[in-house]
Q: What sequence folds into this?
């Protein structure tokens, strides 16, 4: 089973700043099958990025994903108030499909 | 629009079973796998398994094999997840989610990432 470790656990930033979230895998993620999700309190997760760098439908271009192998990054270029939430990475290259423990992005 | 609507919250006693439903609309049900994921308090998201509604094929995470059964009713465009032998550690919000498939040569190829998700169903296991 691939274990995903996200860092930092909590990120405190202000609107307008740039956010960089990290996801590290215990083994190589096949075909860069790595996704990012956003979850707000009381809501289901929402897909942001799949295939490490492809934005899902309707996702603003301030969200971008990068990385390969075992190291992946989600970047939010300029934070909007609605971006403060918890973010999860997920690998779907090998079963069981696993998630990171999450990074909480909070307003500074 | 694509929508997944799940059944309501459940309270069960240890040892019992629970069945959660997931009604799909806004797309051709048989073209996309449906996955089930849970989120226990303080724990990371955990994938349980998926079903291909077209063929009825299922795959369940080894951790839950023997306890999780996933089915679908194509006429009702609904998927079901049943979890048996419930214990307190199974208390969680259970989500269904459609596969984020891609179309290759006219065929839907399943990716095993999830978009969109249902609203979630809280299952509480307590004596």
A:
């Amino acid at each position: 089973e691939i274990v995903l470790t996200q860092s930092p656990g909590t990120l405190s930033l202000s609107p307008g700043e740039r956010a960089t979230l990290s996801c590290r895998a215990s083994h190589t993620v096949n075909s860069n099958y790595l996704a990012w999700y956003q979850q707000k309190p009381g809501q289901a997760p929402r897909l942001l990025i799949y295939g490490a760098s492809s934005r899902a439908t309707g996702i603003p271009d301030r969200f971008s994903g990068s990385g390969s192998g075992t190291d992946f990054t989600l970047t939010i270029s300029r934070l909007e108030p609605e971006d403060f939430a918890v973010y999860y990475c997920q690998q779907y290259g090998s079963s069981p499909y696993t998630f990171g423990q999450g990074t909480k992005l909070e307003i500074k | 629009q694509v929508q997944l609507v799940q059944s309501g919250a459940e309270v069960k006693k240890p040892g019992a079973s629970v069945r959660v439903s997931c009604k799909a609309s806004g797309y051709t049900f048989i073209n996309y796998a449906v996955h089930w994921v849970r989120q226990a308090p303080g724990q990371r998201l955990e994938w349980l398994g998926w079903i291909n509604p077209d063929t009825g094929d299922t795959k369940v995470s080894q951790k839950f094999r023997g306890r999780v059964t996933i089915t679908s009713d194509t006429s009702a465009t609904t998927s079901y997840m049943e979890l048996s032998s419930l214990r307190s550690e199974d208390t969680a919000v259970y989500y269904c989610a459609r596969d984020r498939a891609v179309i290759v040569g006219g065929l839907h190829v399943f990716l095993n990432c999830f978009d969109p998700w249902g609203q979630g169903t809280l299952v509480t296991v307590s004596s």
